[in-house]
């Protein structure tokens, strides 16, 4: 009898949580998610160092040290992989690149390691976008579908926000999956063309607190079409 009672209680509590969540607008779900991940509003003035270790099948481990100083518009990326290292230092519009400690980089190495300022700014946007989620969903050029979707993904039920962007910001369509009880972001997914089921999904596990911001500890990347595993990156404090 006790077991039956507790089962009913659990179902009832879940119904209350999901029922309340379903009544929220997309803006309210986003605000709740931001309150979970960045309760003190620290993201906009972040000044911190991050370490990201990337593991991909059949490739050497890659370690990236990322330094961001938003108030001074500074971004530094130090990458080590196999026997090589390279650095991007971006300050506002200026960009400095070194390979194995030298600014004198041959054309062959420039092409081999894709060392150019366009790539450096892409990496800056990449890291600050993904580790700035869900706060970055309030950036200009971001369009949040007002309808909150309810989806089951990998056996768990989520509240899902659909996001598109102005063409100069990005052309992919994104879906962000939030736990209906805590509003923690646990999955995100993007498509270049959803009708083709292309693009990728990313599973988030654990949290690393950086300057009061709860960021995903690990991100595992997969292809939407066939669930092919692409790699995992792990965030560490420095």
Descriptive overview:
The protein has 238 residues and is α+β, with helices and mostly antiparallel strands. The protein has a single domain (24-237), classed as Clam (outer membrane lipoprotein receptor (LolB), chain A), CATH 2.50.20. The chain contains four helices and 13 strands. It has helices at 2-22, 26-37, 107-112, 117-130; strands spanning 47-55, 62-69, 74-81, 84-91, 94-99, 142-144, 149-153, 156-165, 173-178, 185-191, 200-210, 213-223, 229-237. Strands 1, 2, 3, 4, 5, 6, 7, 8, 9, 10, 11, 12 and 13 form a 13-stranded antiparallel β-sheet that branches. The longest helix is centred in the first third of the chain and has 21 residues, at 2-22. It is globular, with a radius of gyration of 20 Å. The N and C termini lie far apart (52 Å). It comes from Flagellimonas lutimaris. Keywords: Signal.
Weakly predicted, low-confidence segments = 2-11, 13-17
Strand percent estimate: 35-45%
Indicate the radius of gyration in whole angstroms.
20 Å
Query: Can you write the helix and strand succession as a string?
Result: HHEEEEEHHEEEEEEEE
* Bulk shape: globular
Coarse structural class: alpha+beta
Number of helices: 4
- Characterize the main sheet: 13 strands, antiparallel
Count of separate structural domains: 1
Mean pLDDT: 92
How far is the first residue's CA from the last residue's CA?
52 Å
**Fraction of residues in helices?**
10-25%
CATH class bucket: Mainly Beta
At CATH level 2, the architecture is Clam
Write the CATH fold name.
outer membrane lipoprotein receptor (LolB), chain A
Number of strand segments: 13
């Amino acid at each position: 009898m006790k077991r039956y009672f507790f089962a009913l209680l659990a179902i009832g509590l879940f119904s209350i949580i999901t029922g309340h969540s379903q009544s929220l607008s997309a803006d309210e779900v986003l605000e709740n998610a931001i309150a979970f991940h960045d309760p003190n509003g620290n993201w906009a003035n972040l000044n911190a160092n991050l370490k990201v270790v990337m593991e991909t099948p059949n490739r050497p481990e890659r370690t990236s040290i990322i330094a961001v100083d938003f108030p001074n518009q500074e971004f530094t990326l130090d990458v080590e992989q196999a026997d090589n290292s390279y650095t991007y230092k971006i300050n506002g519009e200026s960009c400095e690149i070194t390979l194995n400690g030298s600014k004198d980089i041959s054309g062959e190495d420039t092409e081999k390691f894709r060392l150019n300022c366009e790539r450096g700014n892409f990496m800056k946007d990449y890291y600050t976008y993904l580790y700035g989620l869900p706060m970055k969903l309030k950036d200009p050029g971001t369009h949040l579908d007002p309808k909150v979707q309810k989806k089951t993904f990998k056996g768990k039920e989520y509240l899902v926000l659909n996001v598109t962007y102005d063409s100069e910001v990005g052309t992919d369509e994104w879906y962000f999956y939030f736990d209906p009880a805590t509003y923690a972001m646990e999955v995100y997914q993007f498509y270049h063309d959803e009708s083709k089921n292309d693009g990728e999904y990313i599973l988030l596990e654990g949290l690393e607190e950086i300057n009061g911001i709860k960021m995903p500890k690990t991100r595992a990347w997969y292809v939407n079409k066939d669930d092919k595993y692409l790699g995992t990156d792990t965030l560490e404090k420095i």
